[in-house]
Write a structure and sequence with these properties.
Layout: E1 3-8, E2 13-20, E3 25-32, H1 34-37, H2 45-67, E4 76-82, H3 86-103, E5 107-111, H4 112-123, E6 131-136, E7 141-148, E8 151-156, H5 163-173, H6 180-188, H7 213-225, H8 230-255, E9 261-265, H9 272-284, E10 288-290, H10 294-297, H11 302-313
Parallel strand pairs: 1-4, 4-5, 6-9, 9-10
Antiparallel strand pairs: 1-2, 2-3, 6-7, 7-8
Helix pairs in contact: 2-3, 4-11, 5-6, 5-7, 5-8, 6-8, 7-8, 8-9
The structure holds 5'-O-[(R)-(carboxyoxy)(hydroxy)phosphoryl]adenosine (KG4) and zinc ion.
Length: about 350
């Protein structure tokens, strides 16, 4: 069995994990920074980078301790090398390089999105390639066909906001604070999803792309009108997101070629309403449905360690001079979505 040290620092979670190639999770540690960012209502890159500097090394030591291992027992060091907030990514990658060099171990530069994309295979040993992946996080909303490690075909992306971003902005509009997604979901449970008429952007359009900016503006108008209860806005917003995700996935399933499983990953996959709608969609199409456990959906180092293990098994290691990348698409060949704004 190979043992991989995984390191994550691309946004506001510092994390370290030790993962076995047999899918054993020998240790995983995580330090969130919510308190540091809360006064600003969102992640402040400079604060995030400084916090990673402070906590990453102690976290790695704690993870090694938890597993009863030393760096000598580790076969490779894997760290997120992008995409993400570049200051934080550099902290994690430089830490990984230093450890790899000091211990004479190979370095594996992991794409954070590949970490999310392969995380369902850590949770479920029976999940084989190819599968259809809905990747929904704070920064990304994509449908990908996963044909193998490093083999991704992007079928759809968002032309403006990511789904998680829409949840976070809705939370801000409703005064729920940060982080928004879980709070909107909790409030939505007590509301009426039919109470507020909200748009379903791009519903029925020919390509399976997403758009959430218009929905966000409609939420703002509904809130400002004073005509609706916050819980009804939250429930109606969440229902609109579900409708968009399902409609766009229907299109992608029709266009993407056969895949035996529908898989969801990324922080928004923690949402219960979205998970059950996806499960029903998969059942309608005779596809299996796989979602990682909640702790593995949001950012963590176990998924980075696991992506490292998958790459290590294929002999895919990286030179120590590899650079951190703020942008790093999983499918570099994918064209920009028509009508897309500045976001990749
Ligand atoms: O994958 P992740 O931890 O970080 C990124 O790489 O973006 O995803 C974080 C996103 C945030 O936008 C957060 O609001 C959203 O996932 N999220 C949720 C839920 N839990 C987290 N969105 C909806 N419902 C949830 N329960
Ligand atoms: Zn993420």
């Amino acid at each position: 069995m190979a043992i991989i040290l995984g390191i994550e620092s691309s946004c506001d979670e510092s994390a370290a994990a030790l993962i076995g190639s047999d899918r054993s999770i020998l240790a995983h540690r995580l330090a969130g920074q919510e308190d540091a960012h809360r006064p600003y209502g969102g992640v402040v890159p400079e604060i995030a980078a400084r916090a990673h500097v402070q906590v990453l090394t102690p976290l790695i030591e704690a993870a090694l301790n938890d597993a009863g291992l030393t760096l000598d027992d580790v076969d490779a060091v894997a760290a997120t090398a992008g995409p993400g907030l570049i200051g934080g990514v550099m902290v994690g990658l430089v830490t990984a390089k230093a450890l790899a060099m000091a211990a004479g171990k190979p370095l594996i530069a992991v794409n954070h999105l590949e970490g999310h994309a392969l995380s369902p295979r850590l949770a479920d040993s029976s999940l084989e390639f190819p599968y259809l992946l809905l990747l929904v996080s704070g920064g990304h909303c994509q449908i990908l066909r996963v044909d193998g490690v490093g083999q991704y075909r992007r079928l759809a992306t968002t032309i403006d906001d990511a789904a998680g971003e829409a949840f976070d902005k809705t939370a801000k509009i409703l005064g729920l604070g940060y982080p928004g997604g879980p709070r909107v979901e909790a409030l939505a449970k007590t509301g009426d999803a039919r109470a507020v008429p909200l748009p379903r952007p791009l519903l029925g359009s020919a390509e399976p792309h997403f758009s959430f900016a218009g929905l966000k503006s409609a939420v703002l108008r509904a809130a400002q009108s004073g005509n609706y209860r916050p819980e009804d806005i939250a429930a109606s917003f969440q229902a609109a997101v579900v409708d968009c995700l399902i409609d766009r996935l229907e299109k992608a399933i029709a266009q993407g070629g056969p895949a035996s499983h529908l898989v969801v990953a990324g922080g928004v996959a923690a949402n219960g309403a979205i998970r059950s709608a996806l499960e029903a969609l998969a059942a309608r199409h005779d596809m299996g449905f796989v979602a990682p456990p909640l702790w593995l959906c949001t950012d963590n180092a176990a998924m980075i360690g696991w992506a490292g293990a998958e790459r290590f098994a294929l002999g895919l290691t990286d030179p120590l001079d590899i650079a951190a990348r703020p942008r790093w698409p999983l499918d570099p060949a994918a064209e920009a979505a028509r009508g897309a704004g500045v976001k990749a």
